[in-house]
TrEMBL record:
Gene3D superfamilies: 1, 4-beta cellobiohydrolase (3.20.20.40). Belongs to the glycosyl hydrolase family 6. Its EC number is 3.2.1.-. The active site is at 169 (proton donor). SUPFAM superfamilies: Glycosyl hydrolases family 6, cellulases. Keywords: Carbohydrate metabolism, Cellulose degradation, Disulfide bond, Glycosidase, Hydrolase, Polysaccharide degradation, Signal. Residues 1-30 form the signal peptide. InterPro entries: Beta_cellobiohydrolase (IPR016288), Beta_cellobiohydrolase_sf (IPR036434), Glyco_hydro_6_CS (IPR001524). This is Glucanase. Coiled coil: none annotated. It is an enzyme of class 3 (hydrolase). Residues 30-57 have a biased composition (Low complexity). Residues 30-58 are annotated as: Disordered.
Amino acid sequence: MPPAARRPRFRTTAPVLGLLALLAAAPACGGEPAPEPGTPAASPAAPSPVVASEESPFWVDPRSDAARQVAAWEAAGRNSDAQVLRRIADRPLTLWGPGDDPGPEIRRARAGARATGRTLLLAAYNIPYRDCGQHSAGGAPDARAYRSWIGAFADNIEDTKAVVVLEPDAIAHIIDGCTRPEHHAERYQLLSEAVDRLKKNRNTKVYLDAGNPAWIPNPMDLVDPLFKAGLARADGFALNVSNFQPDAAARAYGAKISKGTSGKHFVIDTSRNGDGPLPGDRAQAWCNPPGRALGTPPTDRTGDPLVDAYLWVKRPGESDGTCRGGPSAGTWWPDYALGLARRARD
């Protein structure tokens, strides 16, 4: 199944949340095994393979919702819109592993990545009690189920070059009080085990999610929780997943966390931060905010020695949830995608 929803990235209060389906959001997440993104208007033919530009080492999925939408619009004569949407379709997007069985989708993506000699981008989003019951609520029913799921997730990557963003929101939801105290120890244990399991794959890099500058104001509050979750054995941490904080703000925030973690590197989600966050209502700024734009295209050429890559973790065009007229979290929303692409500067 295609990627799922992505959850909210900024919270002003504590309790009350859930998860993404990893795949789902990512960034607005989708619960359960996250909701499946809607299928774009009938695609007349399978899109042709896409090869990433030389500026990016990451794999481009020729069967993403955006790619199929481009094919559908071209068939319908909407060539101008299709050309604009290629700003999403022709770029590397992170695959959120389906919450029921991640195997088939990861195998499909693995084959594509190997055929093109590119690196696979993945997000694991299925932790129990995900998103505290909100738009992306769901996740594995218990610790045993999660261990089985993350095992299948890792097994199907094999020795393919891959970057995995591990459990968006999971740590920040502990810090902000959303995840209930009785679940904290188990969550840290599961995250730590997940890092170890994924790192058994010799070509897999793992980045633990660490929220964003607007969510956990003091970056030092993340240091100890990140280490409890296995940061010492991971490649680093991830910032701004499914959020809209500017690159500069994320870099400055990440540099402080890096200093507190003895120099750990990080990746930044730049999928929708081209115009920064929505001014005004900060409590709802994370959910399908209008007027936003695509950010820096995915690349490992960041110009910052601490930033390993700019990634599109949240898949542009997937809804954050049923707010502002959007469909359920993780569902493909063509009009929103087109708006993000039209306002992009690159």
